[in-house]
Amino acid sequence: MKPAQGTSSRIWYAGDTAYRIYGVGAAQATRDQIIEVACTSQPLKPQRVECLPTLAENVGWGSIKIRDDLTRVANEIHGNESVDSVKKSELVQLAGRIVRQSTVKNTSLGLAMEIARARATRGAGCRGVVEDHGIQWNQAEVALDPQARHQYLRAQIAVQMAAVRGVAGARIEQGASCEVIAREHEIWSEEVIEALEQRAIRTVGRMMVERGDPFETIVVALGLTLEQSRMSLQYMIDSQHLRSRNMPTRASSQ
Fold first, then answer.
1. With contact defined as beta carbons under 8 Å apart, do 94 and 70 qualify?
2. Is 238 in a helix, a strand, or coil?
3. How far apart are the C-alpha atoms of 211 and 178, rounded to whole Å?
4. Tens digit of pLDDT for each residue in 179-228?
5. Rounded to 10 degrees, what is the CA torsion of 126, 189, 67, 170?
């Protein structure tokens, strides 16, 4: 859904629902490559960051402030038939380094969030990511806009949720401890930790329950820290026991 006129970009972009990318078309692969470069690039020193807008101007891109600007640049790179594949690759690298520096203050929450979520999905620590992209509030801003704290909080949760859907969640399904994963991926929100632990219960936990492992063994193995997660696990165990009791034996079925 496109924003209504006058809608704050912070409110529009802070939700957990993925923003639809308009007008990207055949350049989607190019756009994805730019995001990939942004995720693998190292942060630049301040003096080099200051040079990036000039470089963007020199190749005719103009400013890259919002997600639509990134789409426009991807379309321009993809559709430019006057340059060869090597030059296009260099332009992708440049665009990726530019958007890697995106913060709420120097671009927009939308662009900063897209890069932040992509990085978290690929395994970068969430706390470092939100700091890199300025997805955090300060007292002065909260004083001017009382909703700012809540909006930034939801944005931070969205970044952490991206980790659960990405590398962090995949590691959970391979048997890693939720407590260890939360620490290594810098996930601190109880809401997100619950999502992580529920994923562990639904996958590795279910296999352990069906195997007959005891409650405390599963809790320790999964690294469950929340009471609601322990309750979900106990419910799964109780349900498994109930199904086992109600399953007809071979003798009674003959």
1. no
2. helix
3. 20
4. 999 999 999 999 999 999 999 999 999 999 999 999 999 999 999 999 99
5. 60
Nearest one of 197, 187, 254 to 225, comparing CA atoms: 197
User: What is the rounded distance in angstroms from the CA atom of residue 66 to the CA atom of residue 94?
Assistant: 17
CB within 8 Å of 11: residues ≥ 6 apart:
147, 151
Q: Which residues contact 54 (CB under 8 A, 6 or more apart)?
A: none
The string over 159-168, giving b where at least 16 C-beta atoms fall within 10 Å of a residue's C-beta and e elsewhere, is bbbbbbebbb
How far apart are alpha carbons 41 and 97 in whole angstroms? 6
N-terminal to C-terminal alpha carbon distance within the chain: 60
Give the span between the Cα atoms of 46 and 69, in whole angstroms: 22
pLDDT in tens, 137-181: 887 877 888 888 899 999 999 999 999 999 999 999 999 999 999
Distance CA 227, CA 232 (A): 9
- Tokens of residue 179, six digits: 């407590």
Q: 3-state class of 63 per DSSP?
A: coil
Go through 240-249 and write b for each residue having 16 or more CB atoms within 10 A of its CB, e for each that does not.
eeeeeeeeee
